[in-house]
């Protein structure tokens, strides 16, 4: 989504409290540029982004997409002779992939190909979940926050009903539903992957809806919205031009975090046999197939796990970086800059501004506007 | 207030009804409940029998109301009309649940308490040392815990930690090189996480090295792993450490009277050690509880008698010390039974269990079965704790940072209060308030999340019951599991909202 210049955002000028001078680098920049600049100034987030992109590119190009072939020579289902006990041939010094970089299973299938397919499918599920949960959550939260009244009552009770079912239970039931639906309609197995993403997405939007509703509730009372309304703007225009751009930060950050819990959930379901089914590989299914071989071929267990952790970890770091970038009030204190000024004014100089972004405790949970700050951690 | 609670309860019941309807329908239509019978040679008899038993020829919506009628019977006290239906195998769901529920709740409770204690400690420490190496280390670790798939961690614990530790126990010895290497690494970690001037940090590193080396050497030299013991000396040593730590945290070392109260409690505990051993012989849970209560009372009494300007502080220090000394005495008794347990025919020297929730066929006194419980709970608990710990530590860090920037903390400092008083009295307590809500909201999700962990460890709790029933398209047990988690979640949400207005008077409940 583009970043229109919001009307009300206070000037993002951070004054140096000692000298009162404005740092030069913030003059004359749009909100989008500021966010981007802050994001790319965050080493952890940038490194994570690079690693994640590398994983995506590796998994997409190695096996190819659909009819387009990739550069890797083995097919995930092709059995072959087991070479050297199926040991991994990957070596860093000198860098070479060898015949089977991640090793082979006891049928001689290439683990690299299987892991790449699993990564592709897990990423597909993750992206579909992000899109669906983001759309539904934003629409439900936005409508109930903006129109209030009956719309809010109905939509929020619906949210309550869904949120009370633990995500794992809901997702397991939906996963089972997807599997039998695909089987009875004789669809290609890849349909399970998409259906799983759709259904997990439909299960995991409530926390986002609550957050978006909270944002809408505060924003709709602000002066700039009143001004727009007096100027005769329609509800649609107010929502899309005035309120939504101001909630982009919250939505983006939470969709990111939701995606990281979605990949954990999908792999867990596949591990339990309620997710992606044979002959398709998921990272979770790879682990469940190979855990019995742990004593003899541990690499079959390690590699898929490393990929899951890497994907979830990088997304979490990116989400954290986005949170810092979007919310200027909660910007991190920069210890380097403080050291340059050379004085230690206070033992906790940064405590006011550095309350951990977005993990903002739900202070108003006492009333029935419970803003639940996390996005379905129970998905694990 | 009462009208608020009533209104919340009524909404909660309606939400629960809606959600249960949804879950029932989803389970009922999620597959063919007869799928496993089609290839069966006796299908002719079995299919009509199951259709009959589970009422499969009525539509799922109507079956839900039958189920609801049975479930509503549970609300009538002492009427014995409670029925949550039968499972596919014809067992009553109520009896299935009553066992599974106990197992899961025990696992989740222990895991949650550990996660809260460890997570909050880590969060507070990293907030107080913001942007130090320690802070970055903890932050990275919590992110890692966030991103660990629970099943992977569980398999890892099972296949690597448990099996290798059991192998190690067969012949517990380390080469001197390995011993040195472990100690050097430990010292390095101490150096990296300590703070302050370089001299202090190096000192801490050396201390870490020496302590680690000493402990490992002691454990190996006394064959402690095969015959663990605490005995009077170790209980005394640990007890004194606890008393001093409690005083430092709660009263400050300058409050000598509080320290004396704590030390006196340790002495009383040591005196009680011998008479209590006789009581333990036929002992059960009640004896343990009584010991804990008595020790806490002794501690509180000692603190009160030692008195001084602040009796409450002394009483708190004494109470905490008494609690831990009681735990140490109990731990010592369990350790006395350890060799018998490990060498019993069912265990055969491999104590750390990787499956089930108790060793089948094992019989023994209270202490033996207690140890069996412990070895089975150990790995799933570690798994649940690690996963739940991350969010608590992040939240408590954020909350503590916010509090440390408040005006009243500055005021407290300006009054000249010691750093300990500022942190422990003014900041720490207030930082815990938002966590109360978080913990309460998390409980339902944690029970749900334990499903995956349980199924990896074949822990016979609600998780296994749930997964099995989902695979079998068997709605009644699924509904039972959902009902428990749903009710627990609802109750805790309500408690959270009520407790919040008590803890933070700024928040008012809409009456």
**What's the rounded overall pLDDT mean of chain A?**
78
* String of helices and strands of chain A: HHHHHHHHHHHH
**Backbone CA Rg of chain B:** 27 Å
Judged by helices, strands and strand pairing, the structural class of chain A is mainly alpha
Order of helices and strands of chain B: HHHHHHHHHHHHHHHHH
Silhouette of chain B: globular
Specify the oligomeric state.
heterodimer
What's the rounded overall pLDDT mean of chain B? 86
Helix content of chain B: over 70%
**Terminal-residue CA separation of chain B:** 5 Å
Task: Give the strand content of chain B.
Answer: under 5%
Q: Show unreliable segments of chain A.
A: 331-380
Biggest β-sheet strands, sense, barrel of chain A: none
Topology of this protein?
The complex is a heterodimer of chains A (380) and B (511).
Chain A (H helix, E strand, L loop, with lengths): L30 H10 L2 H21 L47 H37 L1 H16 L2 H18 L5 H14 L2 H14 L3 H8 L4 H38 L10 H8 L8 H28 L8 H7 L39
Helix pairs in contact in A: 1-11, 2-3, 2-11, 3-4, 3-6, 3-7, 3-9, 3-10, 3-11, 4-7, 5-6, 7-9, 8-9, 9-10, 9-11, 10-11
Chain B lengths: L1 H28 L13 H12 L5 H13 L20 H36 L4 H15 L2 H21 L5 H18 L4 H24 L9 H20 L5 H25 L4 H22 L4 H33 L22 H39 L2 H8 L4 H38 L5 H11 L2 H29 L8
Helix pairs in contact in B: 1-17, 4-5, 4-13, 4-15, 4-17, 5-13, 6-13, 7-8, 9-10, 9-12, 10-11, 10-12, 11-12, 12-13, 13-15, 14-15, 15-16, 15-17, 16-17
